[in-house]
Write a structure and sequence with these properties.
By secondary structure, the chain is mostly helical. It has one domain. Helices cover about 50% and strands about 0% of the residues. Helix 2 packs across helix 7. The chain starts with a helix and ends with a helix. The protein has eight helices and no strands.
């Protein structure tokens, strides 16, 4: 019985590799970028945020293996939809003014992203630098509400 279950799981694991979602790892061209307040803000953003919030995603090896590939593709699609620095000014809705708040509240980068990407885990000082830089670059959420 255990052998049948293990065999069925192995067949399923192999079969899901043929589902194409999450397998295409091409980035759309960069249309435009924001005017960053400083190179440091841009560097911190690139380190902790750009994989999901730009068209310059670096796809790791595990992003080619289902079901992880599905999760990676979904997170990138959703991240770009809400906030994409590579489509700055041309995207219908770009929630840049929320960026600092998301970092301040610990929502970004997502905790599970920092496990395979330890470089994205910012120190307290780096996090504060990024928050200030994002506010200077994109504005504050409160200003957007007025």
């Amino acid at each position: 019985m255990k052998l049948k279950i293990a065999g069925a799981l192995a067949v399923a694991a192999i079969a899901i590799q043929f589902i194409p979602y999450g397998k295409e790892h091409t980035n759309p061209p960069v249309a435009s970028e924001p005017q960053w307040d400083s190179p440091r803000t841009q560097a911190l953003f690139n380190r902790a945020c750009a994989d999901c919030h730009s068209n310059e995603t670096k796809y790791p090896w595990y992003s080619r293996i289902a079901p992880v590939s599905w999760l990676v593709a979904h997170d990138i699609e959703e991240g770009r939809e809400h906030f994409n620095v590579s489509a700055w000014g041309s995207q219908k809705k770009n929630e840049g003014e929320d960026a600092a708040k998301e970092v301040r509240e610990g929502e970004m980068p997502m905790w599970f992203y920092t496990i395979p990407h330890p470089e994205a885990k910012l120190s307290a000082a780096e996090k504060q630098e990024l928050i200030i830089g994002l506010e200077k670059t994109f504005g504050k959420e409160e200003a957007a509400e007025k």
